[in-house]
Design a protein that fits this description.
Elements lengths: L9 H34 L6 H22 L11
Amino acid sequence: MGLRRPRPPRDAILVYNERVKLFSTFTNALALGLIGFAILRPLTGAAPGMAASALWWGLAGLVLHGVSHYILGYLKKEERDP
């Protein structure tokens, strides 16, 4: 039959997936902080020019949130025995 690549041990896949999920969670937490800052900063009565700045903070948060979803695409599936 054909040559098969050796499978990584199950534990290695689990550890890898947990690290990917941890990094995705960290990125999502940063995104939530930026979005929260963008919402709360104008409400505190800051200078009038801060509204435009808050928009950029909010957009940066939304981009990081999207990146956190993209990172989850790197999760590996464990191959099952036929």
